[in-house]
Design goal:
Layout (H helix, E strand, L loop, with lengths): L16 H12 L5 H8 L3 H14 L2 E4 L5 E4 L2 H30 L8 E5 L1 H14 L3 E6 L17 E7 L6 H6 L5 E6 L5 E5 L3 E7 L2 E5 L3 H16 L1 E2 L11 H11 L4 H8 L3 H14 L5 H10 L6
Helix pairs in contact: 1-3, 2-3, 4-7, 8-11, 9-10
């Protein structure tokens, strides 16, 4: 007699049926080990581990410190919202590709709201010019790989920066240091969908290839990209660097921010340049300081107490 298995509901958002089956098992048993999940699903441990990695990548689960490792599910409402947002971003990116083709097709005709810039040197120069001309605000979506140097905030009086980094862009300590610039509010997100710089909400620079940049002037497309940025900003995790008088040091806030975004202990250790055991030891101290039993709970309590100010 076969046990009842619910029909998959997340396939439309890019989640395979086996990943969803394991996610459902995790919802039924929060803070489960690989062994627990193997017993619940009847899968070999290697299969469970493989699909847990997929859930971590999708943002549907996170790993808590300690041995044995414990896995906790993401809250379904937030997880599904993020998956849907990524799907929307992929659709936007596809439409932008069509826009680039249209701009190239119309090149030489009457100037429209788009200009195609080619070549790493020309792209770097245009990034610099856009920042120099900004009067009030610069918005940035940043992700690797880089054909030119990533955008670095300029210390310009009266100009604020809001930057969303892809987590893969935070592996270099120099980039983390650049994010500390005055007047800059930084957040991070897994799988940032686009490379984008918008100056004063009037000039948009969208990089569509290693050496291709589309400059956007006021248009419905630029308005759509601004709405996408605000949606991603709401989903992104603040990067915290300044102490706020609580029990967390600057290093503790940085570690907790990375953990809250879903990075594993190994990935955090690699980004901070320390041993994994050091990350685990510091995380245990943070959990104790915040009277929390999981990293998710610690992140909530730190946010409620104002200890993770952007």
């Amino acid at each position: 007699m076969h046990s009842y298995r619910p029909a998959p509901v997340l396939e439309a958002l890019g989640v395979c049926s086996e990943d969803e089956q394991l996610y459902r098992a995790l919802l039924a048993r929060p803070e489960a080990t690989v062994t627990d999940l193997a017993e619940d699903t009847g899968w070999p441990a290697a299969r469970v581990t493989r699909h847990l990695r997929s859930l971590l990548t999708l943002g549907l689960a996170c790993r808590t410190p300690g041995r044995p490792a414990l896995y906790t599910p993401a809250v379904p409402e937030a997880a599904v919202e993020l998956l849907a947002l990524r799907k929307q971003a992929a659709i936007v990116e596809a439409r932008l590709g069509a826009t680039v083709l249209t701009a190239e097709f119309r090149a030489g005709n009457e100037a429209g709201p788009f200009t195609v810039v080619r070549g790493a040197q020309a792209i770097a120069q245009r990034y610099d010019q856009a920042q120099q001309s900004a009067q009030s605000e610069v918005l940035v979506l940043d992700r690797p790989p880089y054909a030119v140097l990533p955008v670095a905030p300029r210390r310009t009086s009266g100009v604020s920066y809001r930057m969303i980094y892809d987590m893969a862009a935070l592996g270099d300590p120099a980039e983390l240091a650049a994010a500390r610039s005055a007047g800059t509010s930084c957040r991070m997100l897994r799988d940032v969908p686009l490379k984008l710089v918008v100056a004063d909400r009037r000039t948009g620079l969208l990089q569509t290839g290693a050496d291709v940049l589309v400059e956007l002037r006021p248009s419905t497309l630029l308005d759509g990209l601004l709405r996408l940025f605000e949606l991603l900003w709401q989903q992104a995790t603040p990067l915290a660097f300044e102490p706020s008088g609580g029990p967390l040091s600057v290093d503790d806030q940085q570690l907790l921010g990375l953990a809250a975004a879903g990075l594993t202990d190994q990935a955090i250790a690699r980004r901070l340049g320390v041993a994994q055991r050091t990350v685990e030891r510091r995380m245990q101290r943070i959990l104790k300081a915040l009277d929390a039993t999981t990293r998710f709970q610690a992140g909530l309590r730190a946010g409620q107490r104002g200890l993770l100010s952007p």
